[in-house]
Design goal:
The protein is an alpha/beta fold. It has two domains: about 250 residues, Alpha-Beta Complex (Spore Coat Polysaccharide Biosynthesis Protein SpsA, Chain A), CATH 3.90.550; about 70 residues, no CATH class. It is about 45% helix and about 20% strand. The protein has eleven helices and nine strands. Strands 1, 2, 3, 4, 5, 6, 7, 8 and 9 form a nine-stranded mixed β-sheet that branches. Strand 2, helix 2 and strand 3 form a beta-alpha-beta unit. The longest helix has 26 residues. The radius of gyration is 21 Å and the shape is globular. The two termini are about 20 Å apart. It comes from Pseudotamlana haliotis.
Length: about 325
């Protein structure tokens, strides 16, 4: 039995892997605790895979390292490939520059095993910068997944997301999504491009499956930030990537926090008529939200608002799968 699968997605990561893999192989776990490391080479141009093999052989460890190639560029695709190859009931997404504290896996597993309603878990990180910190670092470091994700241990469901760096999540959640052919609307990082939001999108589906998001202060890692990521130009691109993802994440928030998801599987003619009226009023006022109301009325019969249509369609498939699973118990 594999308790935890650690998935490390890489793009041209040969210079980063030594510390990351060293911290993974040195995890302090109880006797009988089994974990695996899955390294996904996301179309790298360097020697990422070979460097990983060479390093792992030097460790003389019994921990399994599985190296997989994913040629389709994009962090979301790489993660999916890793998840589908995994054997553990708990997944940890460890970025190629994350140095997990020695007790990270044991703490993560113990907490998730004792708290079945928590779907995703995050901790805190300390930044390790390759060069002297820029003058904006302390103001912007949260955008680099450096710092804390909560004021204290507890439920951060209202926050709506957990960082992808060091993210702990139940494999069953991701497997359900992939079983219904879920495709992320936010592909996240693609090569050196800084598109983002895929981590947060996964968290929205954690919530839509009726799980909680949680912050655990004792779950710690160091986040190594290379000098090329500490320039003003990089920061601007990073913030722009976050900005571009926000409208879709806001749509997810509206869908979940306003309880819209509870209605899409049982819309009456009266409900549909009400949404049509709202759509007409918004359209007359030149309010762009008319298309969301119109899409709610139409369900998945016709595509007006593409993103809401796809979210609704995926949620309906997911609801059916969860119902089928419940009936088969």
């Amino acid at each position: 039995m594999v308790h935890i699968s650690v998935i490390v997605c890489c793009y041209n990561s040969e210079k980063l892997l030594k510390e990351t893999l060293t911290h993974l192989v040195k995890q302090d776990v109880k006797d009988g605790f089994v974990y695996e490391v899955i390294l996904v080479d996301n179309n790298s141009c360097d020697q990422t895979a070979q460097v990983a093999r060479d390093l792992w052989s030097q460790f003389k460890t019994t921990v399994c390292l599985n190296i997989i190639k994913e040629e389709k560029p994009g962090l979301s695709y790489a993660r999916k490939t890793g998840v589908l190859a995994s054997k553990g009931g708990i997944i940890i997404f460890c970025d190629d520059d994350n140095w997990l504290q020695v007790d990270y896996l044991q703490i993560a597993y113990g907490f998730m095993n004792s708290n079945p309603k928590v779907g995703a878990l995050g901790g805190q990180s300390e930044g390790v910068l390759e060069i002297e910190e820029p003058n904006w670092w302390h103001k912007e470091k949260l955008n680099y997944a450096v710092g804390v994700q909560g004021g204290q241990d507890g439920d951060i469901t209202k926050r709506g997301y957990v960082w992808g760096a060091g993210l702990v999540i139940r494999s069953s959640i991701l497997q359900r999504l992939y079983d219904i052919n879920f495709e992320s609307l936010l592909t996240d990082r693609v090569g050196s491009e800084l598109s983002s939001g895929g981590d947060s999108e996964i968290c929205k589906w954690v919530l839509l499956m009726d799980y909680k998001l949680w912050y655990l202060e004792s779950l710690r890692f160091k986040h190594y930030i290379t000098k090329n990521r500490l320039t003003d130009e990089y920061l601007i691109k990073l913030l722009e990537g976050h900005k571009q993802a926000q409208p879709l994440l806001n749509l997810y928030n509206w869908f979940f926090y306003n309880g819209i998801f509870k209605k899409v599987n049982s819309l009456t003619l009266k409900n549909r008529g009400s949404y049509i009226k709202k759509a007409i009023k918004c359209y007359i006022r030149n309010d762009k939200s008319w298309s969301t109301h119109c899409q709610l009325a139409l369900g998945t019969f016709l595509k007006i608002h593409t993103d809401l249509y796809l979210i609704t369609k995926t949620y309906r498939r997911l609801s059916k799968k969860q119902l089928d699973e419940k009936n088969n118990i």
